[in-house]
Amino acid sequence: MFRAETPRPLRATVSGQNLQGLEITLSGEGLLARAFCHEIDHLNGTLFISHLSRLKRDSIKRKIKQMMKAGEW
Q: What radius of gyration do the chain's Cα atoms show?
C-alpha cells in the first residue's frame, strides 16, 4: 500500500544458533543482505516507517488517518 526507499547496506552478516544450539554466522550481499536486515527488523520489532525521514513518516501517518476517517483502513 505504501512504498518508500529504505536505506540498506550492500553487505550484512548475521549470527545465531542452529537447532542444535551451535553458533552459526551467515553473510550476504545485495538482495540477501537486504533480506537479512528486513528479517532482523522483524525480530527487533522495528517498523518500516522507522527507517523513513520524519517528513515521509508524518505524510504516511496523515494518509492513514484520512483513510481511517473515510473507512478505507
A: 17
DSSP assignment string, 19-67: TTS-EEEEEEETHHHHHHHHHHHHHHT--GGGGS-HHHHHHHHHHHHHH
Which residues belong to the active site? 39
Q: What are phi and psi of 7, to 5 degrees?
A: -70, 130
Please give the model's pTM, rounded to 2 decimal places. 0.75
Summarize pLDDT for 10-63 with one digit per residue, the tens.
999 999 999 999 999 999 999 999 999 999 999 999 998 999 999 999 999 999
Closest CA relative to residue 51, chosen from 4, 14, 2: 4
Residue written as grid cell 527507517: 51
Q: Please answer whether residues 10 and 21 qualify as being in contact, where contact means their C-beta atoms are separated by less than 8 angstroms.
A: no
CA angle 33, 58, 4 (to 5 degrees): 30
